[in-house]
Amino acid sequence: MACIGLIIAISCKKEHYSDAIYITGTEENATTALSIDKKPVSTAVSITASGLVANDITVQLRVDNGLIDAYNKANGNKSFKALPDGTYSLSADQVTIKAGTNISNAITLNITSPDKIADGAGYLVPVRISSVSGNMRVLESSRVLYILVRKVLYMTVASLTNNYFKVDFSKNNDALKSMSAVTYEARVMVNSFQSYSPFISSVMGIEENFLLRFGDVTIDKSQLQMAGGGAALTIPTPFSTGVWYHVAVTFDGSIENMYVNGALVATKSLSRTVDLTSGDFYLGRSAGGRQLDGALSECRVWSRALSKAEILNGLCGVDPASKGLEAYWKLNEGQGNVASDISGKGHNATAAGPVKWIAGVRCDQ
Q1: N or C terminus of the chain with fewer C-beta within 10 Å?
Q2: Which residues, given as ranges, of the chain have pLDDT below 70?
């Protein structure tokens, strides 16, 4: 009987623990993103209960900008700030979960004046459960929904069809030798993948050293691969032509990770150092050819392994003075044949021929 009583007690405790409400979606990720263009936009916010409620539950919601500093510190001292006054509103300040249901009606966060929001800046809107009717418990880890707001950017990019850039790593290069950590980043769009052996379309790097590329004789020509150093890491899912992607590879001395649009898609263990001064470093070419038929922008080299959050927050641009940023080619000059290294290290990239610049390419952050 004691055993039966113990089982009942545990069962009751678990049932009581699950009796809670939370902002819908935050049980998996408390942060979501909202891109804004030239027109007002909105996103919905609702409340979910862990089970059907016996009585109507009213939940009060509000924007709590006092949480922004703590969010920034908890996520690597980010610089998100509050949206300017008058640029946003909540459609209402409360929702109700009706008796016999477990999901409330929705309210919306409305961005009403996108023209007053700065390009490239990162904004954060913390929507917080402030009070609940009755005795319903709030799941504390899901009390706040953090909405990251950024403006869509329109960028100038470099076409690399029948062209490529060679990088000057001959000076200010001490940080590029015997690297125990490194990150490559680039935004890339492919017009067509190489159709002849070895089926390689190079993105950036040094052949047989540390090269980000599409294709090889052992993989599909549309698969992205990090090659060199006696090991290769390949993303299993093929890429599409005519689509812009942000791609990144990080190496921290023991683990190599690959990301697409900020999502981790491949990983492997690896032990080596990287020397980016031991060969010719190109954008859009390698090994005397293997060129990229497409376009590039936002190419970066770091002497540290970026976190997933850092990659996600830098899809369309980063601060040129960022720690560990060794080279940064935005490839947005719009004229001439030189891509400036805006990191300040002087590693400019020079094109093999006249560059075709493409204006007005959209980038969602």
Answers
A1: N
A2: 1-18, 77, 120, 365
Mapping DSSP to helix (H, G, I), strand (E, B) and coil, where does residue 65 land?
helix
Helix (H, G, I), strand (E, B) or coil at 275: coil
Q: Is 300 exposed, middle or buried (0-12, 13-18, 19+ CB in 10 A)?
A: buried
Cα–Cα distance measured from residue 279 to residue 229, given in angstroms and rounded to the nearest whole number: 13
Model confidence, pTM? 0.74
**pLDDT of 75:** 79
**Beta-carbon neighbour count of residue 161 at 10 Å?**
14
Task: Locate 109 and state its tokens.
Answer: 């966060």
| Cα-to-chain-centroid distance, residue 177 | 27
**What are the tokens at 61?**
């919601």
- Select 154-363's CATH number: 3.30.310.10, 3.40.50.300, 2.60.120.200, 2.60.40.1920: 2.60.120.200
**pLDDT tens digits for 129-139?**
999 998 899 99
pLDDT at 18: 59
**What is the C-alpha to C-alpha distance for residues 39 and 12, in angstroms, rounded to an integer?**
51
d(CA 204, CA 347): 14
| Domain positions in the chain | 21-151, 154-363
pLDDT in tens, 45-67: 999 999 999 999 999 999 999 99
The first and second tokens of residue 165, run together, are: 């850039």
The C-alpha R_g of the chain, in whole angstroms, comes to 25
Rounded Cα distance between 131 and 128, Å, is 9
Per-residue b or e along 245-262, where b marks 16 or more CB atoms closer than 10 Å to that residue's CB: ebbbbbbeeeebbbbbeb
